[in-house]
Design brief:
about 120 residues, alpha+beta, 2 helices, 3-stranded antiparallel sheet, about 65% helix, 3 strands
Length: about 120
């Protein structure tokens, strides 16, 4: 495969093949040469390569998005439990008289859940 420039300056890609056609007494009779223009094939290969690179990029971006969503879910789950238990704790403390046992249990649940998440 070789790249040449046409007279107008545009590059073309070609395959060049040559064979000796034997003659008499070991002297070649002539050389047979074939020049095949493969410019379109080369352009198609380059377009395919570019499309594959873009597809790989899109795949990486999608994977990153899925990972981000997964991490957000994993972070939000314990935070939602903490908020729920904290809200319940405040409601039990607002009562008259305050329900200290339930408030203590809610705070202990927050602490235990957080220490389990940290492991």
């Amino acid at each position: 495969m070789k790249r040449y420039l046409r007279k107008d300056g545009e590059p073309i890609w070609v395959n060049v093949s040559a064979s000796l056609v034997p003659g008499t007494e070991g002297v070649p009779q002539f050389i047979l040469g074939i020049v095949e223009n493969i410019t379109e094939r080369k352009k198609a290969e380059e377009a395919l390569s570019l499309a594959q690179a873009e597809l790989a990029h899109v795949s990486r971006v999608m994977t990153m998005g899925e990972l981000t969503a997964s991490i957000a879910h994993e972070v939000n789950q314990p935070l939602a439990a903490i908020m729920t238990n904290g809200d319940a704790c405040l409601n039990w403390l607002k009562r008259t008289p305050p329900d200290l046992e339930k408030a203590r249990a809610a705070v202990e649940h927050i602490i235990l859940a957080e220490s389990a998440e940290a492991r």
